[in-house]
Amino acid sequence: MTRKQQHPNETIVINYWIAERKNRKTFKVRERNGRRGFTLHREGECRWMLDGKHCESGSRAREQFAAGNLEEAVDYSVRFLFKEVITEKEPESEHPHLSLIDAFAFAIPLSNGQPEHIENLTRYADYFIDWAEKRQLLLWEEIRQSHIRMYISHMQKTGRTHKTILNYIEPIRFAAKRIAAEHPDFYRDASAGLIVRNEVGSDGIYRGTEGTQSLTFAEILELFRFVHGQPHEREIRVGLLLGGFMGLRMREWIFLSWKSVNLTEDTLIVQKEEGHRPKNRYSVRCLPLPKFVADYLTSLPRSGPRVIGDGLAPKGVADRDVHLTRLANTTCQQVLRAIREWRSDSTLSGKDLRNTLHTFAIENADRVNTRLFDRFCGHAPTGMMDRHYHGRVKDDLVTIYREKVIPFIDVEIETTLVAGERYKMARNGTTEGASASPSQCQVVDLSGLAS
Predict the structure, then answer these.
(1) How many distinct structural domains can be found in the chain?
(2) Contact 179, 106 (CB under 8 A)
(3) Range of the domain at 109
(4) N or C terminus: fewer CB in 10 A for the chain?
(5) pLDDT tens profile 112-164
(6) Computed from CA positions of residues 137, 140, 146, 151, in that sequence, does the dihedral angle turn out positive or negative?
(7) Total-model pTM
(8) Is 240 helix (H, G, I), strand (E, B) or coil?
């Protein structure tokens, strides 16, 4: 009788588990809600026996283990039976009140991307910070997923494309995950479960098709003449010819080196260069040069390793990655400036130059092989025929391009130039060319093409 009263149903609370002493060595442990439980027997000093049901197999489990006290025994048993950890993590001593600037400054450097990618993330983060500050959102803890959705809606209304929106919210998603992982007691991932849908429009109503921005062959040559005598004529003209007439991407022609150009065989190779990594394996290609392009490249002096020259190379930049990034950005800005000066109402960007060749191929699909034009521009094959036919004639593609792509480009350029000669003769027959103009004749002035 005395022994029974020595431990009269003593109850010990350990986090979410209640251990009830049955006798001197036995404890009945159950969850607070009563759903799960097990029994612990103290077999000796620091020795325990667990008796319970395993959560995965459902079979009875008996396990001997070492534990210093009852709390350690319960913790081990819960981990063994239910694969859970009940030891509470000590909370952080102070709430880290991060401003938006500090939040992005902490998270973005942790990205594993290239320096150029980190620089883009920083720029996109600045866009969001500016937007948030106008709405009195200054601290990271104030950002909710509803704010991110408002930001996405704002970009959709201003005409941003789906791909651009995904790029702009990338630093927000990355920062949300990193900060939530670093301070789980105070922050949650506000971007968790966020889906950005590619909407047709703000209300989903069809309002006609919107074509891709592009220049015609005549407009490329007119712009080619327009930049004659401008400070960065060479860089812009190289972009016009290689982007417009050969479909090269901006970084492909900006970082194209002379070692990749063979003027003896009139070919160039698009491959990995300093500052440029090919988009895919089909972007690595050897292309024959149209006659007009070959003649212009032959006339260029080889000042520097790149075809565009060193006129826009930034000065005094020690970091090579920053140097190359600034070179690319400055070249893009100069091309865009030339387009705006040539036609103030134009909405073209530098990367739209390569749309000229695509548009020409689509408009003349009845007489040209559009699949070959796609491969010529470095697009990956989309169908089985492209992958198994055009993909297997890699060694013969240059010959095929010479026979089925280059002649159409040469004829189109020659036709435009002949029309331009007629315009030039008409202009020379007047005092100042008042009887005709490039815009009226839809042709180009050839006076600057030979320069």
Answers:
(1) 3
(2) yes
(3) 100-182
(4) N
(5) 777 878 888 999 999 999 999 988 888 898 898 889 999 999 998 888 888 88
(6) positive
(7) 0.56
(8) helix
